[in-house]
Amino acid sequence: MTIRQFDFAFDPAHQAASLPFGVTPATSFIRVDETDLWVRFGLWSVRTSLANVIGYECSGPYSFAKTAGPARLSFADKGLTFATNHRAGVCLSFAEPIRGIDPLGLIRHPGLTVTPADRDGFVAALQDAGIPATT
């Protein structure tokens, strides 16, 4: 079984803002294996089958105010953001919205934005899994 794990790209200011929420390099990762996507972001965790990931888009830059600190919920589209920098990331789209921001799963997310240190490597892992770019 092939497992590819990616660190988050922490900017110093984002790392300081995230620390009170338990988001550190040691508690955050993006993992892709042959069947699943698993993202841990401090206290928050998302796990779904790769079959549920229907597309991705490279995105950024972002506003510091909208990315620094804990996991973020977009009130516009219910998307979830796990960000550790304001420069660049990858937005994933799901066929079935996923659980993530709340422990009971009452809010479901149609998308997740992450900021991997090796964005090109993460995109390659998505492509290897047959996930198409949406742009």
Characterise the protein shown here.
The chain is of the alpha+beta class and 135 residues long. It has one domain (4-128). 16% of the residues lie in helices and 36% in strands. The chain has three helices and nine strands. A hairpin with a 2-residue loop joins strand 3 and strand 4. The longest helix is centred in the C-terminal third of the chain and has 10 residues, at 119-128. The protein is globular and about 35 Å long.
How does the SSE layout of this entry go?
Layout: E1 4-6, H1 12-18, E2 28-32, E3 36-41, E4 44-49, E5 53-59, H2 64-67, E6 72-73, E7 80-82, E8 89-98, E9 109-114, H3 119-128
Parallel strand pairs: 7-9
Antiparallel strand pairs: 1-2, 2-3, 3-4, 5-8, 6-7, 8-9
* Low-pLDDT sequence parts: none
* Broad shape: globular
- Count of all domains: 1
The total count of strands amounts to 9
Largest sheet: 5 strands, mixed
DSSP helical segment count:
3
How far is the first residue's CA from the last residue's CA? 30 Å
What is the spatial order of strands in the main beta sheet? 5-8-9-7-6
Kindly estimate the percentage of residues that lie in beta strands according to DSSP: 35-45%
Helix/strand-derived class? Answer: alpha+beta
How large is the radius of gyration? Answer: 13 Å
SSE run: EHEEEEHEEEEH
Mean pLDDT: 95
Fraction of residues in H or I helices? 10-25%
